[in-house]
Specification:
It comes from Bacterioplanes sanyensis. Keywords: FAD, Flavoprotein, Oxidoreductase. Pfam families: Acyl-CoA_dh_1 (PF00441), Acyl-CoA_dh_M (PF02770), Acyl-CoA_dh_N (PF02771). Its cofactor is FAD. Strands 2-3-7-6 form a four-stranded antiparallel sheet, with no helix packed on it. It has a three-stranded mixed sheet with strand order 1-4-5, covered by helices on one side. The protein is globular, with a radius of gyration of 22 Å. By secondary structure, it is an alpha+beta fold. It has three domains: about 120 residues, Acyl-CoA dehydrogenase/oxidase, N-terminal domain (Butyryl-Coa Dehydrogenase, subunit A, domain 1), CATH 1.10.540; about 120 residues, Butyryl-CoA Dehydrogenase, subunit A, domain 2 (Beta Barrel); about 160 residues, Butyryl-CoA Dehydrogenase, subunit A, domain 3 (Up-down Bundle). The model has no long low-confidence stretch (mean pLDDT about 95). Helices cover about 50% and strands about 15% of the residues.
């Protein structure tokens, strides 16, 4: 395994780091203050569109797409350090058009979409003109087992009829969210993993109702957000089916491999930012006539944070390298491993940084509380820790099949 950054990756690392340093970091605190001071926070402030235009002009756009026709042609391994850099900021992923769930939805449309679907939805998504949502999880069933999904996507003649309720649909609150991908039951009599389909729906389709936005520890993550949506006999053209009836799980697995690399590397960037804030605070604040860094076990906490970040980064890079070499299916265990390790690692380090900051760490004066909420949520997004551990153990035990007892 060779984790050496290619010359192309090194070039983009330098350019992305400089853009974040020079364009994003100087304005982000003021941006967030202005956004949160508004009565209506579900808005796009002009500075975001200005930054997006600058990033596009600088060639720092759609960095996640390995296909040079749509992006800059970076492999997963090459993109990983860029995702880490964007994880240090709440707005950088959108500025570079590399934020969830748009990245995954664009990958789905690029891989499985018809020319008509790509023209209508993929092109404006790639241009950053619209946003999208992904509607999979449901409130009425244990969605950790996706075969439990009860919402339906039934084919009726030349239409598909959507019914059901979805929640934690990320990005649904954004004012530019124009399209969503709905996963629903199409054929309950088919084999277990061939019953569900993915269907594109316009957000303004009759019968689509956003019932509420959902907070995570009181944070709504405006203007993106996570919402609960009701679908009442939503009728869309049959051409809105992605790939074909019953292929929902196939698409989901293709979508979630690279996307987990993105999430996990952003979490490492988030943990790096938390460690940086922790070290600065521990150096500058004094208590009992000593800097905080010299009190209690704070040096051990800092050392452990550094080691845990390095370990997690190496495993993410290995998973990215494997996806590039053998595909997501060949890296299932490694992907699940990082999906457990990265958010738990980030959550622990952010929590320690909050502790070092005292009461301020719990407030909005620092980004730590919002970062903690994000890291904690990602222990459920894309599947809970327990599901991933179950898959890791299943793959591990295949090695010992000869030793397993038989009925």
């Amino acid at each position: 395994m060779d984790f050496q950054h290619s010359a192309k990756a090194q070039d983009y690392i330098q350019r992305v780091r400089a853009f974040i340093r020079d364009e994003i970091e100087p304005i982000e605190e003021d941006y967030l203050r202005e956004l949160h001071s508004r009565e209506n926070k579900w808005v796009v402030l002009p500075i975001i569109e200005e930054l997006k235009a600058k990033a596009k002009a600088a060639g720092l756009w759609n960095l996640f797409f390995p296909n040079e026709e749509h992006g800059v042609g970076l492999s997963n391994l090459e993109y990983a350090p860029l995702a880490e850099l964007t994880g240090r900021s709440f707005i950088a992923p959108e500025v570079f058009n590399c934020n969830a769930p748009d990245t995954g939805n664009m990958e789905v449309l690029e891989k499985y979409g018809t020319p008509e679907q790509q023209e209508q939805w993929l092109k404006p998504l790639m241009a950053g003109e619209i946003r999208s949502a992904f509607c999979m999880t449901e409130p009425g069933v244990a969605s950790s087992d996706a075969t439990n999904m009860q919402a339906t996507a039934m084919v009726e003649g030349d239409e598909i009829v959507l019914n059901g309720r979805k929640w934690w649909s990320t990005g649904i609150g954004h004012p530019n969210c124009k399209v969503g991908i709905f996963m629903g039951l199409t054929n309950p009599d088919a084999p277990r993993h061939q019953q569900h389909s993915m269907v594109l729906f316009p957000m303004d389709a009759p019968g689509v109702t956003i019932e509420r936005m959902l907070p995570v520890f009181g944070h709504y993550d405006e203007p993106y957000g996570h919402g609960e949506i009701r679908f009442d006999n939503v009728r869309v053209p049959a051409g809105n089916m992605i790939a074909g009836p019953g292929r929902g799980f196939e698409i989901a697995q293709g979508r979630l491999g690279p996307g987990r690399i993105h999430h996990c590397m952003r979490l490492i960037g988030m943990a790096e930012k938390a460690l940086e804030l922790m070290c600065i605070r521990a150096s500058e604040r004094t208590a009992f006539r000593k800097p905080l860094v010299n009190l209690g076990g704070n040096r051990d906490i800092i050392a452990n944070a550094r080691m845990n970040i390095e370990q997690a980064r190496l495993l993410v890079l290995k998973a990215a390298w494997m996806i590039d070499k053998v595909g997501a299916a060949g890296a299932m265990s490694e992907i699940s491993q990082i999906k457990v390790i990265a958010p738990n690692m980030a959550q622990e380090i952010i929590d320690a940084a909050m502790q070092i900051h005292g009461g301020g760490g719990l407030s909005d004066d620092f980004p730590l509380a919002a970062m903690f909420a994000g890291a904690r949520a990602l222990r459920l997004a894309d599947g809970p820790d327990e599901v991933h551990r179950g898959l890791i153990a299943k793959i591990e035990m295949i090695k010992y099949k000869a030793h397993m007892a038989h009925d």
